[in-house]
Amino acid sequence: MKRRVFCASVLAFAASAPAPVTATPRNHTILVLGDSLSAEFGLQRGKGWVALMERRIADERIHATVINASISGDTTYGGRTRLPALLAKHQPQVLIIELGANDALRGMSQALTQENLIVMAQAAQKIGAKVVLLGMQLPPNYGPEYTKKFAETYPEAARITKSALVPFFLEDVANPPDIADAGKLFQSDNFHPNELAQPILLRNVWPIVRKTLP
Q1: What CA–CA distance (Å, rounded) separates 79 from 161?
Q2: Predicted local distance difference test score (pLDDT) of residue 133
Q3: Which of 36, 38, 70, 163 does the annotation list as catalytic?
Q4: In angstroms, how far is the first alpha carbon of the chain from the final one?
Q5: Helix axis angle, 110-126 relative to 76-90, nearest 10°?
Q6: DSSP secondary-structure letter at 193?
Q7: Is 192 known to be catalytic?
Q8: pLDDT tens for residues 84-113?
Q9: Which of 24, 81, 87, 162 is the most exposed place for a label (fewest CB within 10 A)?
Q10: Catalytic residue (one of 72, 90, 172, 192)
């Protein structure tokens, strides 16, 4: 009789006990600091690679919010100047740096570009953010020496700061596998990738960014 009462008491307690609480996954913030290549220059809103990444994140049910702080015409110096306030405001877990093309257009030194990239990466890492650098390369008309030094800027900055690196952000866009497609992925200015190129840009970036997310 006592055993039956005990068992009944246990069952009653189990029925009344609250269900175990499942922890809500932490929501990550991804901050994109870029120039016109990430600011949807010349594109319909929502068609750029950053917007496509937001949809990819939603499709994969990843708990992450994307903040696009890209400004057309920005340089690594401009990004370096803007970044402290952005870090303080958004407290990102991931920082994607897509800057440097305008440095070359303005003739900035490779050393200064590299210094700015390093300072930005280290500032983000100080608040615990992971950093992804989007590497850029220049066409040969910039001269072999400058082109070579510029191409080395991103791997070196990534090595020094231990950041993740996309070797060439415009891979398969500026240098399509089929030479007959050369130029077809750019807008009329032959500088900004068009809408057809945006999924390719995301394809270049996403595998590296995905590794930084839960």
Answers
A1: 17
A2: 98
A3: 36
A4: 53
A5: 10
A6: B
A7: yes
A8: 999 999 999 999 999 999 999 999 999 999
A9: 24
A10: 192
